[in-house]
Amino acid sequence: MTTRATTKDTQDPLLDPILFARGMAVIRIFFGIILFANGLAKLEPSLGRIDLGPYHANLITRDGARGILNFEVNERRIREGAPQGTQVPGLKPFVNDVVLANWGIFQWLVVLIELGAGGLLMLGLATRLGALVGLGQQLFLALVYVSSNRWLFEQPHEYVPLIVLAIVPAGRLWGLDARLVRDTPAFRRWPF
To answer: Counting Cβ atoms within 10 Å, is residue 179 exposed (0-12), middle (13-18) or buried (19+)?
Structure first.
């Protein structure tokens, strides 16, 4: 006698794993491009200005990054009579006495972070590590902006996807992590 199984195994999945993996790969590559492009603009400032017909945009150069950091930490005033600069305890002395005072070093650290994390994400290589490195930079910027009266969602859309990419192995489709995991099963764990 043959019986037909009607278990959960024969039902269509609620989530197509291939479609999900493709979506994660697109987000991974997109965030990699964002980081990498900003890193390139810091290497070559002429890449920081984009003019394509009626479309005009910019990327942040090294001088631009220094200027933004100085303005947000020391000069921004959210309303008339409010104190200038960040109100986050300890941030102003750290940025002024460590980061800006040593900008000659920190500017290249920013370039390395953006090119490195961006490259890893685009290639899908050590994807979760690349996302974690990019996340560190974005969380620092979120701290800089926390008291600057920004649009509520301006910073979270920069770091929430990187949190997800640091957790989910998004480099296993359209990425080099797939080959590493396939060839060396020990690489099935984080950061691949």
So the answer is: middle
